[in-house]
């Protein structure tokens, strides 16, 4: 495995899945002697909370809340 000119490496999919390293997971690097360790950073916000934060303010549907509710109620009938 090589480090790119931007200092990036690809973590193999098998390792990402095994350790739950999903996109946007915060990680940190720890240097000990001649070795570097990668670990998930400790965060207080849940994965769902981070997702909601990223999506907040992105909706541009142009409908009022009442219009959306009317549309969803109509589909359930």
How would you describe what is shown here?
- This protein has 77 residues and is an alpha+beta fold.
- The chain has a domain at 1-46: Pemi-like Protein 1, Chain: D (Ribbon), CATH 2.10.260.
- The chain has helices at 13-19, 47-55, 65-76; strands at residues 27-32, 35-40.
- The chain has a two-stranded antiparallel ribbon.
Topology summary:
Layout: H1 13-19, E1 27-32, E2 35-40, H2 47-55, H3 65-76
Summarize the structure.
The chain is of the alpha+beta class and 77 residues long. It is 36% helix and 16% strand. It is elongated, with a radius of gyration of 21 Å.
Descriptive terms for the model:
77 residues, alpha+beta, Pemi-like Protein 1, Chain: D, two-stranded antiparallel sheet, 36% helix
**Biggest β-sheet description:** 2 strands, antiparallel
Helix proportion of residues, in percent?
25-40%
Number of DSSP helical runs: 3
Give the H and E element order: HEEHH
| Class from helix and strand fractions | alpha+beta
**How many strand segments?**
2
Provide the CATH architecture of the domain at 1-46.
Ribbon
């Amino acid at each position: 495995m090589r480090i790119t000119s931007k200092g990036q490496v690809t973590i193999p999919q098998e390792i990402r899945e095994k350790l739950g390293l999903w996109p946007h997971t915060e990680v940190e690097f720890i240097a000990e002697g001649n070795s570097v360790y990668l670990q998930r950073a400790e965060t207080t916000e849940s994965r769902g909370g981070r997702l909601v934060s990223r999506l907040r303010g992105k909706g541009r549907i142009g409908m009022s809340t009442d219009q959306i509710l009317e549309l969803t109620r109509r589909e359930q009938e």
